[in-house]
Amino acid sequence: MTQDMQHHFSSTLEVTIYTRPVEHPEFDWVEVDRGPGYFHIPTDQEIGVHIRSINNATLAVLIKELSPVQEAITYMNLSENRNVTNPGIELLPQMTQLRTLNLSAVGVNSTGLEHLRKLMHLERLDLSYCNRLTDAALKTLEVMRTVHYVDLQGVPAITQAGLSRLHKRKDLTIIR
Q1: For residue 18, how many other CB atoms are within 10 A of its CB?
Q2: Which residues are within 8 A (CB) of 77 and not within 5 positions of it... i.e. 6 or more apart?
Q3: 2 vs 149 pLDDT, higher one
Q4: Does residue 45 contact residue 20 with C-beta atoms inside 8 Å?
Q5: Which of 18, 90, 154, 168 shows a CA-CA span of 20 to 30 A to 43?
Q6: Gap between the Cα atoms of 69 and 72, Å rounded
Q7: Please, is 112 exposed, middle or buried when counting C-beta atoms within 10 Å of its C-beta (0-12, 13-18, 19+)?
Q8: DSSP assignment letter at 56
Q9: Residues 6-41: tens digit of each pLDDT
Q10: Is the pLDDT of residue 44 over 80?
Q11: Per residue in 69-100, pLDDT tens?
Q12: Helices (DSSP H) in the chain: which residue ranges?
C-alpha cells in the first residue's frame, strides 16, 4: 500500500484506535492499535479514538495530535473522564466529522453542551451519567437536528417534564 493511500498521525497519549470501512458504517468498530505511537490507517477506513484518565489539557493535546486526520475521525469515546469539563467540550467542534460521541460520565454541564451544536454531522450522543446536566441541556438537544440517538441514562436532574418536550422530535431515540 502506498503512503498516499493512508492516513498518518502520531500520539503521545495512551489512546486506543479503532477503524471500520468508510463504505460500511454498519460494521462494528475494530481495535487496530494502541498508543502512544505512530499510526498508519488506510484511507478507506474511518477512525475511532478512545482515551481514558484525561483532563481538559490532555484533551487539547489529543485534538491537536489528531488534527492531521480529523476528517477521518467519526467516533470519539471520552467516557469516564470526569475531569473533562466545559472548556474541554468547547474543543470538540474541531473534530468536524464526528458522527458518534461518547461523553458518558464526563464533567460537562448544560452550558457546555451548547458547544456540541457546532458538530454538524453528529448522529449519536451518549450523555449517560453526566450528573451535571439539567433540563436546560434538553433545549440544546432539541435543536441538534442531526442527532438521532441520545443516551440520558443515570442523569438524575433531567426530569420527565423536561423530556416531554424532547419527545416531540419523532426522529430522536432517547434512552432513559
Answers
A1: 20
A2: 48, 49, 50, 51, 102
A3: 149
A4: yes
A5: 90
A6: 6
A7: buried
A8: H
A9: 999 999 999 999 999 999 999 999 999 999 999 999
A10: yes
A11: 999 999 999 999 999 999 999 999 999 999 99
A12: 56-66, 86-89, 110-113, 136-143, 160-166
